[in-house]
């Protein structure tokens, strides 16, 4: 059974080193676990979508919730899926600070990205648009 999980969190202490470390760790460990996805980030938040087997995704999400680099970890969406959307990324990434305000306004009432108030459907649609616009980097 494949699942897709979308969550938001805030960095405990924002540094570029943390983002690099998270991406390196994901790209090193996700292939063996069959996990794919995308990490969207800026200095104030992380938004990440994970896809893979139910047990593997649940285990990884548990690790993320216990990871001291994250605070305010909030599940935005969890669903069974028949196929992956992000199969090409062991962990793609995009910097939300480079997001076009016009793109953001398609999904949000304000030109500031806040997945906590935006919700899972809109956040996932935004990630899909970024992927289709080639704004997601790190294709495996």
Automatic annotation (TrEMBL):
Q: Please state every residue range assigned to the domain named BLUF.
A: 2-92
What Gene3D superfamilies does the annotation carry? 3.30.70.100
A single Gene Ontology molecular function, please? FAD binding
The protein in question is named Blue light sensor protein
Give the species this sequence originates from: Duganella flavida
């Amino acid at each position: 059974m494949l699942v897709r999980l979308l969550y938001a969190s805030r960095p405990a202490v924002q540094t570029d080193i943390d983002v690099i470390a998270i991406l390196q760790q994901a790209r090193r460990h996700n292939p063996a676990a069959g996990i794919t996805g995308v990490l969207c980030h800026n200095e104030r938040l992380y938004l990440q979508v994970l896809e893979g087997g139910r047990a593997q995704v649940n285990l990884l999400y548990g690790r993320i919730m216990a990871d001291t680099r994250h605070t305010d970890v909030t599940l935005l969406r969890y669903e069974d899926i028949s196929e992956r959307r992000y199969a090409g990324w062991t962990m793609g990434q995009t910097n939300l600070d480079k997001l076009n305000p016009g793109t953001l306004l398609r999904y949000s009432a304000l030109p500031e990205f806040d997945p906590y108030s935006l919700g899972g459907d809109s956040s996932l649609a935004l990630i899909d648009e970024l992927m289709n616009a080639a704004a997601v980097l790190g294709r495996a």
